[in-house]
Amino acid sequence: QVQLVESGGGFVQPGDSLTLSCAASDSDYHAIGWFRQAPGKEREGISCISSNDNTFYIESVKGRFTISRDYAKNTVNLQMNSLKPEDTGVYYCAAEEGFVNYCAVVDFPYKHWGQGTQVTVSS
Asked: Residue 101's CB: how many other CB atoms inside 10 A?
């Protein structure tokens, strides 16, 4: 069973950038999704990368966020630029099992979840 560890969160000002990382304990090409949850709100999926590196972004982050895979490190990164206060929340990565050609940011296919990392965007 794969284990995931998120890192890279922090406190930044609007317009700043952060890069989050999701490190996997094995070398399988899992589809990886990024999700976030603001206080008092439902968790939402924001981006994913499939086993063969097809990517998806929700409209509110498209053009600002970039998801990518570092094969040597068994890690998926989420580069976040032009951050806004509404990007604040706990960010989670999650992995599907098996080989997935196309990914989606709905919760149910993801069987393994990391512990989360806090992102705060405020002036």
From this structure: 9
Q: Rounded mean pLDDT of 92-98?
A: 94
Six token digits for residue 46: 């924001």
Alpha-carbon distance of 5 to 14, in angstroms, equals 26
What is the CB-side half-sphere exposure of residue 13 using CA atoms within 13 A?
1
Q: Are 61 and 46 in contact (CB under 8 A)?
A: yes
Residues 6+ apart with CB under 8 A from 109: 31, 96, 100, 103
What is the three-class DSSP state of 73?
Answer: helix
Q: Average pLDDT in the 4-12 region?
A: 97
pLDDT in tens, 22-50: 999 988 889 999 999 999 999 999 999 99
Distance in angstroms (rounded) separating the CA atoms of residues 50 and 61: 18
Enter the tokens of residue 99: 């080989």
The HSE-up count of residue 97 (CA atoms within 13 Å, CB side) is: 6
User: Regarding beta strands 89-95 and 32-37, do their DSSP bridges make them parallel or antiparallel, or are they unpaired?
Assistant: antiparallel
